Structure formats: structure tokens, C-alpha cells
DNA sequence: TAGTGGTCTAGACCACCAT
DNA sequence: TGGTGGTCTAGACCACTAT
């Protein structure tokens, strides 16, 4: 398995370091030799050693820490989110929101912050899925930040048609109370019966990199979630942006014949 | 919305270019000024202009093409894969595999190449899901490459317990015939009834970057798919690795009450 | 052949961190 | 304070693409 351009000094050095990491010689958490030491030992300029490290960081194998050194990235345990997290049984047995239930299950501490609730114009993809006017202030927008052990792991922007949310706690209160969001929807006549989740991945924007403290070489999962009620009506759309090194999705579905 | 470190020359230049791209002044496909021109115009060294471009490439906004220039990345249409692609109805109405059906639907040309069929030791996560011995040569491994208009878009490695595949076409033939893989499983007594898909994202390995021709700043979706039959038995596990700029997943599921 | 990106050098100074 | 990564400079040569 030859790496690309084995004859280039930066690639050769990256290759050697990669081997040391994947073989376990440099285990997760280990500190790499400093850029200056690598350069001297391999007879290259410091910038060349730096380029080698950049390649590894881009692959997600190492992370650099200013003033401390470069370290082999630790394997982080994934928070797994499955479709069963929306079930009423889960909701009622724990009294927790889907997110809190999963984090608690892993013995970690969950925190959710609702940072804003506004009435606004929906993005086109959201308007399409909700079947609302994409040009009027027809939705309530709720922005939620999700933390595990005080580390930010996800952001979720929920859009609810004004027709549904207007006048209810959904449009006014950050606190959702027992059973959380979906219990309130059910009281309003919308029981979540079907979920649709459209998943893709991409590199984070500069804002997301900052807000979620995404390390170099880590993408985000971009999940467009739609909640559909017993009448087939889409009553809520949420765009989740999740650090891909800390989150995974776990879907289990019947196959229609 | 301040970018990080607005006072650094490379970040300032990256910021200006980013604005030009997101505002539409530099539309998808547009060519950026050359590194040397950017450097001269902004009074910085060429390496600094280069660093600005690297930042944008890392975000997935531009791609550099050796000898040609740096271009604003075109928005690519996503191939969308939903769970309904496994249904017998879809299979029988089109006679196509799930992949071919989706690509055809978009008016593109599908090609699937089965590059190897071997009997081997399964990876631990696969063995776990199949309930087979992780230390013996207990599975058939099939490697498939998926193309759309001759561009590689996915790889799938399918593992099937030897107990199920042994002696059948699944263990010997690259061609699956009408109705594809799942029709053959059904003939062997395993009708796909439930699918489980565990999804995460990461940066591609050097091999994947080469094999899938993944551009800079594009992650891959890593999907561990399990096919489960009418008796609740896992009869097949496939690890899909998909270019995230060309593929999306679209799940629609009932919520158990 | 001219222009582009890709790599490399050998320095310099700054910012951060541990001691 | 000394060692670390982060950024920048001003060159050089190579590899690729278009003309």
C-alpha cells in the first residue's frame, strides 16, 4: 500500500509517522517529536516537517496544541442517536429529551441551552418540507446548543410553523418541561409518528469550527430532521450540525415489502 | 460575524475571498486570481496567499487544479439513498440494484464493479453484528466500487457468513443477476426485513483519497449497514464509504410508540 | 513556451504553555 | 525562561496545463 508520492520528503515523513501511529508505536495521546526535532532528524527544513504534520492533522490522526506539542488523537466515544429516541416509551420512561437520555445512558452529563427563540422567515429547504410560505415570517425558530460534560457537541435549529407554535410555550419558553419538545407537540395534536432524516457530511464553516470547537481534520454531520404526525403532516424541521468525531447515527428500520 | 484572527494577513485574505464566494461575486466554477497575483495585489508573500487558499480548500469552498488555477467548487447534485431502496417492490419494479435505481433516476450512468471476492476473517465490528467467530475465515468478503458517469462515488465491502454464502453465487460470482444481491439472499431463505445503518463521517484515508479521487476538504460518510431477515438474523453486513460531496442518506422511519 | 499550482529552503518573529 | 506551535518572508525549482 504505497502512499502518494513516496519520494517527496514531506510525504515520506508523513508516511513514517502514520505507520508509527497505526502500528501503535505512537499510541493515542502520545506526543510527537517537535517540528524542529523532526526537521533536524530527517534533514529537512522545519516547514517541510510542518507540512508532514499538516497532512496527518488533515486526516484526523493528530492534533496540534499551541505551545504544548502535537499529539496522536484519542479515540473518542461516540454518542449514538437512533430513531427510537423519538418514541413515546423512551420519552415517558425517562422523562428526558432524546438527547439527554442518550448522554445519560453513557454516564455523561448533558446540558442543553436554548440560546434564542424568534419568529422568522424559513430557509427554502425547510419551507419546502414544512409546506409553508418561504417568504413570510411564518415559522418559529429555536436555536439549541447541546453539551456533554460541558463540551459542545451539537447545534440544532428547529423550525415550527407559526400556525402550530403560535401562542404556545413552543414560541415563548426555553424550558420545555417534562417529556420535552415532543410531549408538547403531542398536547397540541401532533404526535410524532414518522421521522425523516436527510444526512450528509461536510467540513464545518468558520463559525461552526469556533462554536463547536471542532478540531482540525474533523467534519460535521449535517442532519435535516423532519417530524411527521399521525396525519402525515410535517410539523417540525430541525437542522442538526454535529461534530462527527463525537456523534454517530444509528438507524434501525423495517423494510417495506 | 468576525472570522478568527482578522488581523492576520492570511486570514484577512481568506476572509475577503470567502465573502466574494458566498456573495456570488465569484460564482461556482469561477477562477480565482493566481497565487502570485493575489500575493502582489495584497502585498504579501506568495506562501501567505497560498495559506489563504488552503484555508478555503479545507472548508470545501475551492479546489486547486495543478497548472490550471484555483476554482470555486461547483455545487454537485447529491445521490440520495433511502431505506426504501431495499424494498422488494423497488427491486422487482426496476430489476435494478438499489444503487443503479438511484443513479438512473437522476439520469446518470451507473457502473458497479465487483473487484474481489474472497473468504476471509471479518473485522471485529462486523463479526459482532453477524454473530460469527472473529478469528476464523468465516465470511465471504465482496468488494464493490460504484461509479456515476465513470466517476467513483462509493466503495462497499460486503461480508456474508460462510454458512450462508458458501456454495452459492454469492461466494463465486461477480454478477448477481436480475434483482441483484437481495433477490439472491431471498432465494436462500433470507428476505431483508429490517435494515440497521450506523452512520458517521470522517476524513478519508490516503487510500480512499486516491481510490475515490476525493478532493481536498471533502469528508466521507462511513455507513455500517446490516441486513436482517424475517427471523431477526443478521445475514449480511456492508461497510459503505461514500464521498460526502456526492452522496446523501435519506431515511424515513415509523416511530414506535 | 508561459503561466499555473506544488514543494522546499533557511531564515525570522510572535503567541502560548509549562516550569 | 525555554520550548513549543503559528505565521510570515523571499526566494528557488519542479510538474502540470494550455496555447
TrEMBL record, chains A, B:
Q: Which Pfam families match?
A: GntR, UTRA
> Which SUPFAM superfamilies does this one have?
Chorismate lyase-like, Winged helix' DNA-binding domain
Q: Where is the HTH gntR-type domain?
A: 7-75
Tell me which UniProt keywords the record has, alphabetically.
DNA-binding, Transcription, Transcription regulation
Query: Which SMART domains does the entry link to?
Result: HTH_GNTR (SM00345), UTRA (SM00866)
InterPro entries (alphabetical): Bact_HTH_transcr_reg, Chorismate_lyase_/UTRA_dom_sf, Tscrpt_reg_HTH_GntR, UTRA, WH-like_DNA-bd_sf, WH_DNA-bd_sf
What is this protein identified as?
Answer: GntR family transcriptional regulator
Organism of provenance: Pseudonocardia acidicola
